[in-house]
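Narrative summary of target 7.
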Amino acid sequence: MIMMTAKPAQRPAQKSLQHRTISAAVADDLRRRIVDGEFKAGFQLRQDALAAQFGVSRIPVREALMQLEAEGLVKILPHRGAIVSELSTEEVQELFDLRALLEPRLLEASAPNLTPADYDQLNRILQEYSAELRANHIRRWGELNTEFHMLLYRHAAQPRSLAIVANLLQECDRHTRLQLSLTDGMERAETEHAEILHLCAAGKVPAACALLKTHIEDVGKSLRKYLEEHQDLATNRQPQ
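Modeled conformation, tokenized:
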């Protein structure tokens, strides 16, 4: 006779972990589709439709949308729900100003402590970036850009500033991909990343920090110019 044992009840903590895991996966997919331009600014993200599409309940979808709102990719409005955020020149200005302020300080603290293994990894990232650039794989550009910058700063021993910059890079990912794909920023980013790395390896840290600051500021300026020009075009197309 086979004795049947009762299946232990699922603990609340296990359910909570499952929800967090599912919501993270949903957030990753929605983030990719927003950044890649599949979901345009102003597009309404309906919880019930997304839940059906992903085959999950509305709870992890709601948690995912709240995460994307915290990242600035989504706005949750009364009576409208979640919509994809507009790209504003003011937001771009603030994000890139903060990066230009914090990242050179992190590089100054981290660069003297970069190891040969770090340089090997940084060079591999640059090689992959070059390959993805020529293959026109837009999604990987932003990911590799973030990896490159975070690896440069890993030895700064400034965890709070590093956490802020990690969040800024994530928020800037959509903006950076747009700037890289719609302006002349791809080849320039490739060249400047390589030069920053070369200066660090040569012990010319102040020059590397100065170039990094200029690099970040120029990306922000290029993107703001693009947005302003296209906002003007959209305004001029409206009937008078």
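The radius of gyration is 21 Å.
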